[in-house]
Amino acid sequence: EPIGTFRDLYLLVEAGDELLVIDGHAAHERVNYERLARAFDGDPVPTASLDPPATVSLSADEAAAAAAHADALDALGFETEPFGGDTVRLHSVPAPFGRTLDGDGFREALAALDTGERPRDAREALLADLACHPSLKRGDIGALTPDAQRALLTRLGECDRPYACPHGRPTVLAVGEAAFAAAFGRDR
Predict the structure, then answer these.
(1) Structure pTM?
(2) CA angle, 108 as apex, 120 and 30 as ends, to 5°?
(3) Measured in whole angstroms, how far is the alpha carbon of residue 175 from the centre of its chain?
(4) Residue 43, CB half-sphere, CA atoms under 13 Å: how many?
(5) What are the DSSP E strand ranges found in 64-171?
(6) Rg (CA), the chain
(7) pLDDT band at 96 (very low <50, low <70, confident <90, very high)
(8) Which of these, 86, 54, 56, 92, lies nearest to 73 by C-alpha position?
């Protein structure tokens, strides 16, 4: 049961003999990530065509990575073509839920692929980044109604991996009643 917020980012929740401190942003990010992952499980990431195509100047290393990973970039939703030297044109970019990536997203995908991530791993990293941006931020948590707080907790509880955001940060910290009793010199 939500009992309050702290620093307009953390949701305080009573759960049996424990006080749970939920990082509202990380929890919402996990919920959004799993929703995105389910929506695109086995399906190509939706794309948006760029008209006119975007021109992206790359470093020599980035250009080499773009050429080496052209198929993987295409699988992620980046349709590119060489445009002379170390420049590429982006004809389409990933756009899950209408959120269109830009040249920076292209560079991030290149970096992920160039460090050895498989296209599936790069896709998961892309979805994690897309899940982050619309997630609740500091300042949003305290404005949630008790019903909205409960809905977030319910959706987090329905996640396959509720205890960490898609970037690996914890979503919840549990403090048992015994810790409070010991700290205050009380018997339970």
Answers:
(1) 0.68
(2) 60
(3) 26
(4) 12
(5) 79-82, 87-94
(6) 21
(7) low
(8) 92
- For the chain, the residue count is 188
Structure tokens of 24?
A: 């509202």
Phi, psi of 90 (to 5 degrees): -95, 115
Residue 145 neighbours by CB distance under 10 Å: 9
Q: Which two tokens stand for residue 62?
A: 């980035």
Q: Is the peptide bond before 52 cis (omega within 30 degrees of 0)?
A: yes
Location of structure tokens 């990933």: 94
- pLDDT digits over 4-31, tens only? 999 999 999 999 999 999 999 999 999 9
Q: Name every residue whose Cβ is closer than 8 Å to that of residue 15 and which is 6 or more positions away in sequence.
A: 1, 174
Q: List the beta bridge partners of residue 164.
A: 170
* Helix H or strand E segment including 47: strand 47-57
- Taking only the tens place, the pLDDT of each residue in 39-68 is 767 777 778 888 898 899 999 888 888 888
Q: Which amino acid is at 103?
A: G
